[in-house]
């Protein structure tokens, strides 16, 4: 839907965008923003992001190339490659995690009440 809106030059001009402004997925936008911030001298100890950032194939490389640790949320159906070079659904990769390896934290209340997030670490780099 969004991509089609960007393909209509008249609509883009009416919305105040300059000629040549193009559609970009959220992952690419985040990659470009992170790159600009780091190039400008920002020196974070780590970075974090939600599931949209976790699904990006481009964003993690920005931090990996600079040795910056990051933590992005991923959904159960996302397929990371583990440290042993095995690709599997995140939901499957979490089965071997022991009960004490899990953390549950709330991100505060949302429109439907408390928003608990269950976290476990899985090595994807060795």
Q: Short summary of the structure?
A:
The chain has 126 residues and is α+β, with helices and mostly antiparallel strands. The chain has a domain at 75-126.
Low-confidence stretches: none
| Terminus-to-terminus distance | 39 Å
Q: Identify the strand order in the major beta sheet.
A: 1-2
Pairing-aware structural class of the strands and helices?
alpha+beta
Tell me the number of helical segments per DSSP (H or I, 4 or more residues long).
6
The gyration radius over C-alpha positions equals 18 Å
Counting DSSP E segments of at least 2 residues, the number of strands comes to 4
Written description of the protein model:
The chain has helices spanning 2-6, 9-14, 26-39, 51-54, 59-65, 90-93; strands at residues 46-49, 69-72, 103-110, 113-119. The protein is of the alpha+beta class and 126 residues long. It has a domain at 75-126. It has a two-stranded parallel ribbon. Strands 3-4 form a two-stranded antiparallel sheet. The protein is globular, with a radius of gyration of 18 Å. The model has no long low-confidence stretch (mean pLDDT 85).
Write the layout of secondary structure elements.
Layout: H1 2-6, H2 9-14, H3 26-39, E1 46-49, H4 51-54, H5 59-65, E2 69-72, H6 90-93, E3 103-110, E4 113-119
Parallel strand pairs: 1-2
Antiparallel strand pairs: 3-4
Helix pairs in contact: 3-5
